[in-house]
Amino acid sequence: MAGECAGVGAERKVMVAIDESDYSHYALTWVLANLKESITSSPLVIFMAQPPPRSSYTFSAPLGSARMYCPVSATPEFTNSVQENHKKLTMAFLEKAKEICASSGVKAETITEVGDPSTAICDAVQKFDISLLVLGERGLGKIKRALLGSVSNYCVQNAKCPVLVVKKPK
């Protein structure tokens, strides 16, 4: 019918992508304060990416007043240990976010995937049929954003749903 929005009557899923930053925490609390009515019919989805395993790590060694950086190939045991620690930290962050939601009377489900945050978030949006993605703005300056790229900018350009980027007040 003309004038109807796509997906009216369908379950709408809102996903907040978090990391360990204050910006993510602010975005989550912003959603709970401002979109509470929109997230009552289905659980709020909280997503956090785990860094992918690396085959080498760089360690710094003191060398007088200078430092020497040594790339070292990681053993499978070391890589598994690092991945397990990343998983534990991620699960702890997700559990804390779920508790924050519960204290606001909002039901939440948590999801984590291993991978680059930008692509992992966009993949999760498609995989879990997300209707709205919410991210915190990291506050990178123009130069850092140009050199490093921005997760929020990547998601705005590539996510298959509307993206809301929440800016933390200064």
UniProtKB/TrEMBL annotation:
<dbReference type="Pfam" id="PF00582">
    <property type="entry name" value="Usp"/>
</dbReference>
<dbReference type="InterPro" id="IPR006015">
    <property type="entry name" value="Universal_stress_UspA"/>
</dbReference>
<dbReference type="InterPro" id="IPR014729">
    <property type="entry name" value="Rossmann-like_a/b/a_fold"/>
</dbReference>
<feature type="domain" description="UspA">
    <location>
        <begin position="12"/>
        <end position="167"/>
    </location>
</feature>
<dbReference type="InterPro" id="IPR006016">
    <property type="entry name" value="UspA"/>
</dbReference>
<protein>
    <recommendedName>
        <fullName>UspA domain-containing protein</fullName>
    </recommendedName>
</protein>
